[in-house]
Amino acid sequence: MNLGNERNGFAKKAAPTGKTVTASRLKLLLATLSLALLIVPTSYILTFVFYAFGTKSTTLMDTASKVLYLTEPNTALEELEFDMDFSLFSMDLSFDQYKQVGSEQYPVRHYDLHFVFDDLVDMDVSSDLERTPPKYPTQTNQWLVHPAQGVPEFNSEQEWQVLEGLPDETVVEAYVSFNDLYKVTDIRKELQGTDVLWAAIYTGTEDEMLSTDGDVVSPIGYPVQPDQTYWSPFRDSMSHEETFLQLLKEIEPYEDLSVEVSSHKNLELKERIAFIEENGFAAYGAVISGPKQEVGALKDLELIRYMKLGEVKLWNWTE
């Protein structure tokens, strides 16, 4: 009898009460919640540390902007118009791209880039361009053509006819290819009445648009006009040629990111940098802008081999 009571008493002690179970669950819940509350801010701190001291957000932003100046003819990014947002282990970067047509700058593209750490995992580009350059240039569909290349895919004579048919009260952007290699200073003297905006630079690959490995390469070059925009890498530049070369060296370590951001998908920077350093700077084409009549008057110039018409706007020209 006593033994039974002892067994019953032991059984009662071994079985937890409802209050004990509830307290244990509450402790577990509070511990889990505390851990979660600790992990989230810690993760955000690590995110900010990564973008501040690891792969800096400014490095990603600089690379994205510099490659567009060098690979997208006649484009610029406006100062103080970069929007940067951070979330868990990621960063969103958005900005607008502009073109000069005549004497004014016009918004032409909007970029939204999403990075996870330093990997660009998503990019959305919306365009307001009326005449869009090839997204993935090949050997034959370039808008700027080296003199050693054959006939391009566009019909240059037809482009001149389109230009001639435009109203006199318009300003235009035009892509002109030369019959030889020229210094930019000489090009500016020849193309009187227009603004020479961007020069395509010969890097030893443009004869066939192929690298030594046989990969199709894309045109690269630099803006010719002075640019005092705060964000421009050419701001206060004493020599746009030397700045151009320096920028190529700066983005070379981030070449994978560069080709993802730009529509030009093969840059071969190491090979082309070495060629420029050995041979100097010479242009085989340029982007110009000016009144329709002034651009049309260049048709008979010996140095112009081909012309591709770009954007067209209503008159805004100022001398």
UniProtKB/TrEMBL annotation:
Record InterPro entries: Sigma_reg_C_dom, Sigma_reg_N
Alphabetic keyword roster: Membrane, Transmembrane, Transmembrane helix
Residue ranges of every copy of the Sigma factor regulator N-terminal domain listed in the record: 23-106
Stretches that traverse the bilayer: 28-53
Keyword Membrane in record: yes
Pfam families hit by this protein: Sigma_reg_C, Sigma_reg_N
Ranges of residues in domain Sigma factor regulator C-terminal: 163-311
Protein name: Anti sigma factor C-terminal domain-containing protein
